[in-house]
Every structure is written in C-alpha cells, then in structure tokens.
C-alpha cells in the first residue's frame, strides 16, 4: 500500500511524528521520577498525555498518512507544558540523567531475570497435558473400541452425509490434538449459529487422538452441526518429498534445537522453542486445499478460540480476489513485518515492506479457489526451502504465513477476531463485541495458569455435568 513510511517519519527531524515521539520518551522518564518522588497525581497526568500522543501516532500509522501540525498542535502544546512543569518540580538535567541511567540499568537487570524465569516456567506449564485431559482421551479411546454401535453411527454419517462436500453450507476446519478445546470451538459455534444445521466442521487430529475424538463427537450432539473427523497420517500426499517442513521436522538437528536449545548459545527466546512447532497439525494450515479438495471456501479456527457470534456472514465477505481474510494486528501495538522477519537478509529486504501490517492466524477465511489458482502452497514451499537454516525467521507458523499470503490478504473488521486473552488484559468492550475470542498465549483457559477473569468465557461452553468429565475430575 502506498503511503506513510513509519521508519522514515520517526527519524525525520522535521516531522511532527518525530517531535511527538521525542516528547513521549522524555515524558516516560519523568513518570519514573514522579513515582519515585511519590508525586502520583503528576505521574498520572503525564501518563494520560502520553496515551493521547500515542493514539495520534497510531491513527496516523493506520491511515498511512503523516501527522499534520494542525491535528497534533494541542497534544504537543499540552505535553510541552507538562514537561516544563516536570523540570520545575524535579531535578536539573544532569541529576536526572544520572538517576535515570541507574534506574534503567537496575530495571533492565531485574526484567531480564524475571522475564527469563517467567518464560521458562510459563512454557513448562503451557506444554503440560493436564491429567484430566489425559484421562478423557484414555476413556474415550476405550469407549470407541468397546462400543460397536458408536463406530457404526460414525461410519454411517460419513457414508451418507453429502453435506461434507456441499459448498452452499458453512465449512469450518480445526486442526488439533486437544479434544476438549476442539469441543468448545464446535459447541460455541453451534450455540451461537442462527442455522446450525448448515454448519459443517472438519476436524483433523493425529493417530493417538483419532479414536477418542471420533468417540466424543459421535456420542455428543451439537445442535445438528455436521462433523467430520480425520487423522493427518491418512493423507498420502503428506510426505517429505512434497512437504519441505516435514523433512525439516524429521531432522535430528531441528529436533535438538526445539528440545535442548544448546546449539545457538541461548540466543533464541524460549517461546520459539515450544515443541508444538514440531507437530504437523501446526503446519497443516498451509495445506488446506489438499486436505479438503472438494471445498471452495473454509473458515479456519484455532483450537484456543471461543465463538460468541453467528459466523455465517464470513462466507459472504468479498475478499477482492485475495486468498486470506484476516484481522490485522498492527494497530496501536505496531505489529508489522519487521517484528517477525529478519530484515538483515537480502531476500526479505528485497520482497517485503518492513512496515507492512501483520495479521493473525486463528480465525481466517480462505478462498480455496483463489488459493489453487495462485498456487499459494507453492509459494509457501518456496520460502520454507529457503529457511532451512532459520535465517529468514526463527520458528512458528505466523512468519511463513506473512510471507506466503503477502499481497493476498484482505483485512477484516477487527471485531471478527479479538486476540490476547491468553497473555494480556483486553478491553472489555472489544470482548463484548468480538465474534471470535482468541486465547493466544501460554495462559490457556483449560490450564491452571489460565487468566482467571477470562476463564468463564471459555468454561460456559463446557458441560461439566457430562459423566466422562466428572469421572476425569474436570471442574
């Protein structure tokens, strides 16, 4: 998109953006001093003005046009008055600089230690499979192989249900090895759908959880929603000769990188070493046309989401010949391409705007007709093959997604997909308006480390009175 280059504006000595940014930096320093001096009222005034200035910068970034003097003069004047007042209230520049340097160094040391410990413990907690989930999987697997009627019911549905290929219906897909989380996604979608009988869910899991998943969705009803369960091990095309990432995932050095992390002197943050990235279920989103060859459009949902609105309107959104419909994430947090990719690499610099807006996986509308026409999977293979040494990006599926769907993504209204419920505070108004709530982050609602105030949003779709959930001590 033509327009504002954020980087150039931030460094230009003549830009209003640069002036506001400098004021914000100085004001943040005075906030620290004000709090140290117990002048909390003044610290609050500074923080409020910082927020006002940041909103101006954010608005300019979103519309991609530079700030004008006219629209920012009030904010600049008000901040200048506060900064002048701060200088009168506190210290001379030399004293302030010395104190700030000492304070910043102490905070940096403290934050480094806390962040490292928090990341390690949070990662360990997030990777743990709760005993209750393990219990549910075991009991469901046993139930499936014991109950022939259950198997017959599932087989009959697969044979006679032509809805699985009917492109006039609403097709959703979830790739997951977490039965309960998947159940919440399906249940919340069904309960909030105006026409649940028109909803089709295509679930893909792995060999270990296949029988248990089939059993759960065969013995429970979801308001008439049609449900298909597959396991990715059955996909004959899913082999190392066709799928570059599969070959990489089988590589012993890659596995060592994920699990031990001893081959780069600890330079890579622990969050990028999550063994979930070794799961093919995590990478299957780049092969949706192969997984569902009869479908023309599908809505992809992660298993850590809750649906609280009817999603049928997603299927009539005009993607303007794009392949991927997604909610952008660059708003006030400035999650742009340079946050995810290595711009010191010439291939990245040559092909991608560092200020391009990032977007989110987790609720995506995919036009599979356009996908096949533009050979999007081939684009994905191209970039995966050039990142064998992990120099273009580290790990995960979002960076290759940003490369693969660059110029092929249509921005959706932000209310369709609200993120952050698994790691941060989210505006209650956004939660109320959101169609899909995403618990991205380590603090999943089914874990003990889940954020307590957000757990009810997820738990309302769990039937804790179910005999199997009671037997497995879900509460």
Task: Describe the structure in your own words.
A seven-stranded mixed sheet has the order 3-2-1-4-7-6-8. A three-stranded mixed sheet has the order 5-10-9. The protein is an alpha/beta fold. Helix 6 packs across helix 9 (207-219) and helix 16 packs across helix 17 (398-404). The protein is globular. Strand 2, helix 9 (207-219) and strand 3 (226-231) form a beta-alpha-beta unit. It contains 20 helices and ten strands. The chain folds into two domains: 6-125, no CATH class; 131-471, Spore Coat Polysaccharide Biosynthesis Protein SpsA, Chain A (Alpha-Beta Complex), CATH 3.90.550.10. The chain starts with 5 loop residues before the first helix and ends with a helix.
Total helices: the number is 20
| Strand-pairing-aware structural class | alpha/beta
Low-pLDDT stretches? none
Number of domains: 2
Query: Can you summarize the main beta sheet?
Result: 7 strands, mixed
**Whole-Å distance between the termini?**
49 Å
Helix/strand order, N-terminal first: HHHHHHHEHEHEHHHHEEEHEHHHEEHEHH
CATH C-level name of the largest domain: Alpha Beta
DSSP, total strands: 10
User: Averaged pLDDT, please?
Assistant: 85
Kindly report the name of the CATH homologous superfamily of the largest domain: Spore Coat Polysaccharide Biosynthesis Protein SpsA, Chain A
Main β-sheet, spatial strand arrangement: 3-2-1-4-7-6-8
Q: Which fold name corresponds to the CATH topology of the largest domain?
A: Spore Coat Polysaccharide Biosynthesis Protein SpsA, Chain A
- CATH architecture label name of the largest domain: Alpha-Beta Complex
Radius of gyration: 25 Å
Shape: globular
- Strand content is 5-15%
């Amino acid at each position: 998109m033509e327009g504002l280059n954020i980087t150039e504006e931030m460094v230009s000595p003549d830009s209003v953006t640069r002036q506001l940014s400098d004021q914000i930096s100085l004001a943040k320093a005075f906030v620290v001093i004000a709090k140290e001096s117990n002048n909390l009222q003044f610290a609050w005034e500074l923080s409020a003005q910082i927020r006002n200035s940041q909103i101006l910068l954010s608005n300019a970034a979103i519309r991609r046009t530079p700030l004008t003097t006219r629209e920012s003069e009030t904010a600049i004047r008000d901040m200048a008055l506060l900064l002048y007042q701060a200088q009168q209230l506190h210290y001379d520049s030399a004293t302030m600089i010395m104190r700030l340097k000492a304070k910043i160094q102490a905070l940096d040391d403290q934050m480094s230690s806390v962040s490292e410990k928090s990341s390690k413990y949070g990662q360990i907690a997030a990777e743990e499979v709760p005993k209750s989930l393990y219990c549910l999987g075991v009991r469901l697997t046993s139930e499936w192989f014991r109950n022939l009627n259950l198997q017959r019911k599932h087989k009959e549905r697969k044979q006679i249900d032509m809805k699985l290929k009917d492109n006039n219906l609403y097709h959703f897909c979830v790739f997951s090895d977490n039965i309960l989380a998947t159940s919440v996604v399906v249940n919340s979608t069904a309960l909030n759908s105006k026409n649940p009988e028109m909803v089709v869910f295509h679930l893909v899991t792995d060999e270990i959880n296949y029988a248990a998943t089939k059993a759960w969705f065969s013995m429970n009803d979801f308001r008439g929603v049609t449900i298909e369960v597959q396991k990715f091990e059955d996909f004959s095309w899913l082999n190392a000769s066709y799928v570059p990432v599969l070959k990489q995932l089988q590589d012993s050095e890659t596995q060592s990188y994920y699990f031990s992390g001893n081959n780069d002197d600890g330079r890579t943050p622990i969050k990028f070493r999550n063994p979930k990235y070794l799961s093919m279920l995590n990478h299957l989103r780049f092969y949706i046309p192969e997984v569902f060859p009869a479908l023309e459009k599908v809505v992809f949902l992660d298993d850590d989401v809750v649906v609280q609105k009817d999603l049928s309107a997603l299927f009539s959104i005009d993607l303007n010949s794009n392949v991927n419909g997604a909610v952008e994430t660059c708003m006030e947090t400035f999650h742009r391409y340079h946050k995810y990719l290595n711009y010191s690499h010439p291939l990245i610099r040559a092909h991608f705007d560092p200020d391009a807006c990032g977007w989110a996986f987790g609720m995506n509308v995919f036009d599979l007709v356009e996908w096949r026409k533009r050979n999007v999977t081939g684009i994905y293979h191209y970039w995966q093959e050039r990142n064998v040494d992990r120099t273009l990006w580290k790990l995960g599926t979002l960076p290759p997604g940003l490369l693969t769907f660059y110029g092929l993504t249509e921005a959706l209204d932000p209310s369709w997909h609200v993120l952050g419920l698994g790691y941060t505070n989210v505006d209650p108004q956004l939660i109320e308006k959101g169609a899909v709530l995403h618990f991205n982050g380590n603090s999943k609602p089914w874990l003990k480390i889940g954020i307590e105030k957000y757990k009810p949003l997820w738990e309302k779709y769990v039937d804790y009175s179910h005999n199997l959930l009671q037997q497995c001590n879900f509460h």
